């Protein structure tokens, strides 16, 4: 029998029992949709957590710390394969007071090597990387926090928590000269020494809304000069001005693991995003398998409906099957026709389930943040990019295999029963 | 064409564990020649239907051999038997056995579908045959919209559509009035003469048997001897 004729034959029978087949498809759809939506919660939460982790830092970044009393051997680390850049940012135990025109800002100054920063793919929203000693890069929110005394006073008086920043420097900072001096955290007055720097770049907007980047990035060659000034101005015994953090950037994500392992072997304390992601993935793999297992139970329950429908179909069509066999239909063909019918129920049920699941997932991601936000009374919650439900293609494939597979298995026995129908008995059945 | 040799068969009747053996076919042997009409005549319970079922391959006899066109059918498995039936046999049943959900055209078309014939070829063949049996006007009618005689003509057309060399008819006029019976018998004779199809007719009706070239009479699972051997 040609495949097209087999399909016609099956669809003819389905049309004859529309209501019964519809109800069976409905059960299969509900079971499969439940499986997909349930598992999508696991995928959604995992996606949200991955994003959280990846937003915090670059994915090729590896933080490395020396053990107590030791120092990092930068040349040794640099020799490790796939290490692209080593960025050592040195922070000072003092504030940097910046002055442009009548505006000032108290912020942090970080000493770094710009060549390495460029290699590590430091992104600027404006301008370029410094090439001279007196050139600097400032943070994204540096300009808006440059305030006049009047603006600062107004801001201090403002009681509203979420008040918009008052004033700030409105023009582009590129090419502007900033006068800078150091100030101890303990004292009210800045040191008398001042330096003039030219702003040549502004960093990119931080990934998190709540991070305010007012840092100043300065070439590391200034370290000795700043140390000198600090020592002169501070009392004895409190001259430890600098402390640094080291970040290593690998050439690609796949090398993060090998670099991390090698650095650990060198005896350093290491932290990388890949380690965190790996732990997260292991946890969520178990979580998702659990959810799919629970969802599969719903599919199995719906399969009882398919089994029932197919058994009824075989019983009702006993005489027809007998005639078919008598005129030359092979048992294999009879079996295939019934399996096709149960597979058809499974396929249509799965297609509908996938469409419904995507709709439910979309609605959940749209409505749930609003519901949760209003329930908690936090408007900000609505702005968070939280994914409650995510349906990747892999989940659709897994759910389809389970749903169609279960449909075919439940149609298997009735189909076998059909092949075993005795022609003589079937032909004797009353019309 | 058909050789039946020493065929024996027993039915087990009664509750499980307390079954009784009832012999239904007792050492039957005969032959059917190509192009003839043979009638197997007998009362109810004489075993004639069981004989038809064994020759057609619906069941295997306990003993003996049945050869059709040189092929020993008892050794074939179920799938092979189905294929053999599709290529060699056509069936006409007492109660027509048409598919209620298919039109007259679709019912006749069914064996061709099973053979995997293309839709275009099927249409031409079915149209021609329906014309031959005088049903072209009711081709799109469902079985319950047809008279008994028309239904039996559809059944005959379905049996003939694959051009089988042998056609089995089990009480072909059992559900028809005498006038329609005559029509069907004339049709069978016509098809036998024009197409050269071999007919094996199972009947209890002497009038139906009268169209046969040869008759075998059965009684209690045995062929009854007449003046000329088994043939009466």
Averaged pLDDT of chain A, please?
Answer: 84
Find the count of extended strands of chain B (DSSP E, 2+ residues). Answer: 10
CATH class of chain B: Alpha Beta
Q: Major sheet of chain A: size, sense and barrel closure?
A: 12 strands, mixed
- How many separate domains of chain A? 2
Distance between the termini of chain A: 26 Å
What form of chain A results from the Cα inertia axes?
Answer: elongated
Structurally, how many domains make up the residues of chain B?
Answer: 1
Report strand order across the widest sheet of chain B: 6-7-8-3-9-10
**Content-based structural category of chain A:** alpha+beta
Radius of gyration of chain B: 18 Å
**SSE string of chain B, helices as H and strands as E:** EEEHEEHEHHHEHEHEE
Family (chain B): Belongs to the ABC transporter superfamily.
Keywords (chain B): ATP-binding, Nucleotide-binding, Transport
GO cellular component, one term (chain B): membrane protein complex
Pfam families (chain B): ABC_tran
Could you characterize the architecture of this molecule?
The complex is a heterodimer of chains A (431) and B (232). Chain A has 2 domains: 3-55 and 279-428, no CATH class; 83-250, no CATH class. Chain A contains 12 helices and 12 strands. Chain A has helices spanning 3-16, 18-56, 74-78, 114-119, 149-157, 223-233, 256-265, 273-316, 318-326, 331-376, 393-419, 423-428; strands at 61-65, 83-92, 95-100, 103-107, 109-112, 124-127, 135-138, 177-183, 195-203, 216-219, 242-250, 269-272. The relative contact order of chain A is 0.18. Chain B has 232 residues and is α/β, with parallel strands linked by helices. Chain B has a single domain (2-223), classed as 3-Layer(aba) Sandwich (Rossmann fold). Chain B is built from 7 helices and 10 strands. In chain B, strands 6-7-8-3-9-10 form a 6-stranded mixed sheet, with helices on both faces. Chain B has a 4-stranded antiparallel sheet with strand order 2-1-4-5, covered by helices on one side. The model of chain B has no long low-confidence stretch (mean pLDDT 88).
